[in-house]
Task: structure prediction
Amino acid sequence: MMKVLIVEDDPINMKLIIEILDSLDFMIQTATNGFEALAMADKDLYNLILMDIELPGLDGIETAQRIKNKPGYNKTPIIAVTAFAMKGDREKILDAGLDYYVSKPIHVADFIKLISDIFKRRNNESESKR
Result:
């Protein structure tokens, strides 16, 4: 079963993301700030991380960069799920090292398709290495 870490400080957004991922049969763990996410990434290895950008204490960009530098995480996809949707925000976030960008409010069908495509791509890469 795929393990997903959701890093989100807003309870309503957290609930929505959990409901979406529950329908996809993932093992879900949650963190409400960057420091908590870093501690969880030290203890466990996740197949996917959904990262809010505006977090208390340590923002999502810094958190994602630190996670990517941990052993076993350099290829783990991290999706920015953020309300930062002004011109240039997407590029800034992707240039900072996050792999994908989803703006809030989340369009559920597109969000599910993105996650499915990520895992299909990873499965295809794994099979081609055999």
Notes: The radius of gyration is 14 Å.
